[in-house]
Amino acid sequence: MRENHLRIILINLAWALGLAGTPGIAAAQDPAASARRLAATAQLAAGEYRLGVSGGRVIASEEVSEAKLFLTEARRNAARLPAAVGGRISLALDSIDLLVSRSADPDSVADRVARMVDELGRDLGIGLDEIPAETPSLARGREVYAAACAACHGVLGHGDGPQAAALTPKPADLADALRLRTSSPLDFYRRITIGTAGTAMVPFEHSLSASDRWAVARYAATLRLPVPRGVAPAALRGFGTTARMSDAEVLAALGAGASPEGLASVRLAEGAGLRASDAVFTEVRRRLDSAFALARAGHREEARSTAMDAYVSFEQIERELRVKDATLTARIEAAFTSLRVQAGSEATPEQLAAIRQELARSLERAERTIVDRLSPSNLFMQSLVILVREGLEAILVIGALMAFLVRTGNGHRRRDIHLGVGAAVVMSLLTALALETIFVLSPSHQEGLEGGVMLLATATLFYVSYWLLSKLEVAKWNQFVRGKVQDALTRGSALALASVAFLAVYREGFETVLFYKALAVSGGAGAWAPVGLGILVGAAVLSVVYVAISRFGIRLPLKPLFGV
Hints:
The chain is an all-alpha fold.
């Protein structure tokens, strides 16, 4: 008993000193984090105030006290914002405090809080609500609730857990449907994240991940619901929609005759789920919000690092987007580069705003492009172009090597080139099989492996290029022809040439595998038929080109070719 009272005293002292639930050093440097915390506490204050005041008089003083504590925390976060923004928000909080002190109508307080939150988001150019793209797991929420919440709130949420008797005030009754009719899963998430001053409800901002907080918030929001009946309408199956809606709002959306059982069917619906790309774009935009806010606040290194994090997130869908619109992909990558440079320098607000506008437009277009499915004819053309484009890059190197060997009378060594090409083709196919069956590469690992192959190919090519260029002068060439070519080829140059053939083909083959994987994903079910046809036609085109260069490569101008 004494330990629980001491715990509450320490919690209240921490809130008074601004220690409990603070975002920490990183968040203190990040205006976006402070802004989101400010918005959450202000909106929770409006919710508590609604429960405590009716008809111009206080009906539940403890709720009004909680509302005032939340507003105090909102002021603390306003002090962490850039001076100009923080000043305007402080004035808005003054007006809200005045309304609370006069026991004003709860709707007027809620409207004023909503206007302040909208103004805050516009001033900083960020989104203040972080709704997950995928519906949180109820199973995981149940696990987190049992571990972190049941001791106080009870197994069924009635506020009768083993520790509840020693707590003052008592834990909230999460099964009270009437009292919580104006609460949404987002409200639960905010309270779990921030905690409640003056109670034993501590902030879980740093002890639980965001996904776990959302999971337990969704689970806690179902404890007051009856057994569901019926099927949720399609418009209310997406968690991104219903997470912001209170029970009263969901019932209103269900229409006349809606029942608590219908509400339960909405809250418990797993939903159609959002696409994986939706989660990526959400994360990219969230990190960009933080990067721009940090840049405006003058935290250059943090802004540059956060901008890089945003680009790393974008890379998860970069390859799929490049298949559909290479120009748009290049534009987005250039904008990210510009952001990293400008965020780490003395960029003006106008420069940052221009980059932000360009990224916003491009990301919106990219999201639409990702969602759109390619037609069978487009899939066929994309498949054909990928193979021909990547294959020709490799054939150019191989053709030069073939021309050199034939020109110097060492045409019989072409079999070494053929072996290198064949080995690379087989290795590319094995790589495709491995990526699908044995392991899955993240985008960064894909880039890393491809980059490693490129570096190895570059080193080998430099060696061979030096060897070739040293033979361009006539005198040196004649001397070489008279006796050194065979010796050079026998002692190791043949191995070097074969290595170049292998690496040139495998590098392109590896990249081709990744492009085809992205193309198949973007095409959806049934994509492999037109994609496979494009591969067959592309392979036929490359075979004709390869045979032509192998047979007639001697006609290529050797010195200009190797020189270029």
